[in-house]
Amino acid sequence: MHDHVHDHGAQTLADGGARLFWVMLLNLGITLAQVLGGLVAGSLALLSDAVHNGSDVVALVLAWAAAHIKRRPPTEHYTFGMKRVEILAAIFNAATLIGISVYLSVEALGRLQDPPPVSPGVVVALAALGLVVNTASAWLLGGLSHGDLNIRAAWLHLAGDAATSAAVLAGGLGMLWLGAWWLDPVITLGISVWLLHQSWRIVRSGVDVVLMAVPPRLSLEEIRAALREIDGVRDIHHVHLWQLDGTQVHFEAHVRVAPHTTVADTDRIRDRITHILRERFGIAHVTLQFESRLCAA
Question: Tens of pLDDT along 112-125?
Answer without folding.
Answer: 888 888 888 888 99
